[in-house]
Amino acid sequence: MPVSVASLVVITDVDGTLIDHNTHEWDAARAWLTRLEAHQVPVVLCSSKTAAELTGLQKVLGLDGQPFIAENGAVISLDASWSDHPDYPRLLTGARHEEIRTLLEQLRDAHGYKFTTVSDVDEQTLSEWSGLTPKMAALAKLQEASETLIWRDSDPQLAAFTAALSENGLMLIEGGRFWHVLDQQGGKDQAIAWLMKQYRQRRGNDLVTLGLGDAPGDAPLLDATDYAVVVKGYSRNAVTLKQDTPERVYRTAEYGPAGWSEGLTHFLGEQ
Questions:
Q1: In which domain, by residue range, is 220 found?
Q2: Do 227 and 155 share a structural domain?
Q3: Same domain assignment for residues 39 and 147
Q4: What GO cellular component term, any one, is given (predicted)?
Q5: What does the DSSP assignment read for the chain?
Q6: Residue 213 and residue 147 in one domain
Q7: Closest CA to 243 of 231, 228, 232, 259
Q8: 235 phi and psi, to 5 degrees?
Q9: Is the domain of 127 the same as that of 176?
Q10: Res 271: pLDDT
Q11: Residues 262 and 158 in one domain
């Protein structure tokens, strides 16, 4: 059953979904982005990227001023027109970056965990790790409410590390290349719920959400939306959702932005 664009909010992962995982191209999504803009449909980027990264990406994609969710839900940027909101322009959920970084250093010193954080290295090293340009790597280092790391230790140590974080009100999220540490008040699902509450207070309760993602780490995003598109991805692990019915979930045949557009066409038709 097609979804009406009149009541729609699109919430999308970035890497591997809206933007190609390898080439970073997004041309295959351009037509649908233009169509959504014409219908004044919000397109909310929801990513592990920092606010600095997403702000720049919004300009490239023509999404300036729209809300976005950064650092896996730890940072929520409000719509540019919501200047009357008490949390404008951005809400940081829970612990700040420096608090998290300090705790990680304490845990590493006390227990000998083997990991390297993004804060431990310079832009050039992060560029080599991630494939980002040094300029983009510098933006990736501007974390406000999370820390990113590469884990270099055993699975038992990882379990102990995760438990130690939990005892301190933090959680560990596995990404494509890195692990992310953030406050338990964060998370993409909680950020989406909060943001949609703000939308409904301003635009009414009839809004419908369509989420798009390509990896297991996007499950919280896809579980938090009314309809979900699982874009075909490169992860060896399947994307497992709580309510995986054909009416609610569509799995694409195409990868990246081509799959992103395929999913929108499935739910929206030619509106």
A1: 5-92+187-268
A2: no
A3: no
A4: cytosol
A5: -PPPGGGEEEEE-TBTTTB-TTT---GGGHHHHHHHHHTT--EEEE-SS-HHHHHHHHHHHT-TT--EEEGGGTEEEPPTT-TTSTT-SEEE-SS-HHHHHHHHHHHHHHH---EEEGGGS-HHHHHHHH---HHHHHHHT--SSEEEEEE-S-HHHHHHHHHHHHHTTEEEEE-SS-EEEEETT--HHHHHHHHHHHHHHHH-TT-EEEEEE-SGGGHHHHHTSSEEEEEE---SS----SS--TTTEEEEEEEHHHHHHHHHHHHHTT-
A6: no
A7: 228
A8: -65, 145
A9: yes
A10: 60
A11: no
Report the number of distinct structural domains present in the chain: 2
Q: What are the residue ranges in the chain where pLDDT is below 70?
A: 1, 271
User: Mind listing the pLDDT tens digit for each residue in 109-143?
Assistant: 999 999 999 999 999 999 998 888 999 999 999 99
pLDDT score at 6: 85
- Annotated catalytic residues are 13
93-106 per-position pLDDT tens digit: 999 999 999 999 99
Last residue of a domain, which of 153, 183, 213? 183
Alpha carbon distance 250, 213 (integer Å)? 11
pTM of the model: 0.94
